Amino acid sequence: MHRLNPHEAEGMEMSDLCIKAGRKAYDIIMNGGFDFDSIAAYVAPAGGPRWLAASGFDLALLESGVLGRKKPVLLSGTSSGAWRFAAWPQPEPVRSYRTFMELYLKNSSYKRGDTPQSLLESMSEIIDTYIEQDAIPFALTNKKYRLAVTTARAKNIAASETKWIQQMGIGAAWVLNAMNPDYIQWLFERVVFYYGPLPPRFCLQPGFKGRAIPLNITNFKAAILASGSIPLVIAGLKDIYGAPVGIYRDGGLFDYHLNHEYTGREGEITLFFNHQERVVPGWLDKRLKLRRPPEPILENVLMVYPSESFAGRLPGGRVPDREDFLLFIDDPATRVTNWRRAVELCAPLGEQFLEVMENGKIREVLGRL
Fold first, then answer.
1. Which of 37, 82, 247, 321 is surrounded by the most beta carbons within 10 Å?
2. Dihedrals phi, psi of 279, to nearest 5 degrees
3. Cα–Cα distance between 122 and 131 in angstroms, integer?
4. Do the Cβ atoms of 24 and 300 come closer than 8 Å?
5. pTM reported for the whole predicted model
6. SS3 for 134?
7. Rounded Cα distance, 171 and 189, in Å
8. Rounded Cα distance, 55 and 144, in Å
9. φ and ψ of 170, to 5 deg
10. Tens-digit pLDDT profile for residues 169-182
11. DSSP 8-state assignment for residue 7
């Protein structure tokens, strides 16, 4: 593993990574009471191909084994965040993760003539490849990582696979969300699939609106697939075993970046790697520039994200984005080349974070969230 020299570590905040913390997490870190055993939850947001910026960070954490050493860590993911976290509790997590990344780079293409159903089938093939069926029992008894996957069960017109009707449903959901995020429950229900003796802490809070369903051998892959079934792009998944009947879509509708208090005990911290500085609660909040998670949600969060200068050095001057599918629809080879280069450039980010943790420099580069 590459180690930074002191000069590199001191310049990290200005060059590659930005590290910020909510009020409680900031105080814990600045008072010297933080180490990797303080991390009780690691959250992976939705965001399509933007997850590729987190690949080096994830792999550094996986290969070093720093999370979950004393107690299980909650891995809470939505959409592409759920896809990447599904590799973590596998018997060979690094191999599973790298297999998923390779399949995503090569096979998650968007071609003229594709339909929502064909894209669902394509993503299902990817999941079937990097998650082996006979390995699921191991994932469901993993001692280090406990998985939580968020989906959205569509209701009323939002459950239709007829494009114009579904468009009306999404449009109505946008209007309702702009009025009050709670109103989208008329069209969608948050359903969290989890592994553990009890539902995750955030599912047990008074403000949680939705239901929690245990993961099992039968619904494991279905939950992962449904979590990334983007409305109007990928077909929804029908009737997941063990959950209420219905059409299940991308959980980012509810939990796009951060939308819950994932930790609660004294000294616990939620780790969050994002592709940008702004934290967006739900997918429908993206255009609502003033909407952000309530402060209590951010208090225990340690957020890491690429600096603007670093993102500007990536192909196209930005983190990979879902728009790349359309931009390179007739030239997928260029898209794959660009994304591979982005992965290569992002590969050292995790090791840089580990180094800053190990040498105590985190207190020098830490900002307030």
1. 82
2. -110, 120
3. 14
4. yes
5. 0.94
6. helix
7. 16
8. 19
9. -65, -40
10. 999 999 999 999 99
11. H
